[in-house]
Design a protein that fits this description.
The chain has 133 residues and is α+β, with helices and mostly antiparallel strands. Helices cover 17% and strands 48% of the residues. It has one domain: Jelly Rolls (Sandwich).
């Protein structure tokens, strides 16, 4: 096999694993984002009534690392789901996909979250809530 053929085959093979990841990323919708305060705190992200039902959620972090202790997802039917996360999300990172329990009315009203921000004084931290239908 010549060098050119080998490099073309290598390039084609390296893009194959990216196709499912791109399709996966396209199915996620950003529901809301919020600037979080320094140190340990509790905040709420309101999603809104018209967002629809979601089967999974995920938290992404921009700006700085953030330690998420737990999430409390409140649904429009009055139910809720407590999700213990206990995970340090690095800058630009995200949590695993959290499966929302139940088969009916998973319309998210808001998400409460407890977090701790490492003290490095390197700017603001933004948390983003993503949903998957």
């Amino acid at each position: 096999m010549q060098r050119r053929e080998f490099l073309m085959a290598l390039g084609a093979a390296s893009t194959l694993p990216l196709l499912p990841a791109s399709a996966e990323a396209a199915s996620w919708v950003m529901l809301a984002s919020r600037n979080v305060k320094p140190l340990f705190d509790h905040d709420r992200i309101h999603v809104g009534a018209g967002a629809g039902a979601f089967s999974h959620i995920r938290i992404r972090v921009r700006g700085n690392a953030l330690f998420i202790y737990d999430l409390d997802v409140r649904f429009s039917n009055g139910g809720h789901q407590d999700v213990p996360v206990r995970f340090l999300i690095p800058q630009g990172g995200q949590t695993r996909a959290v499966n929302l329990e139940g088969s009916t009315d998973r319309n998210i009203k808001w998400v409460d979250f407890n977090y701790g921000k490492p003290v490095n004084w390197q700017g603001a931290t933004w948390i983003e809530l993503w949903g998957k239908r």
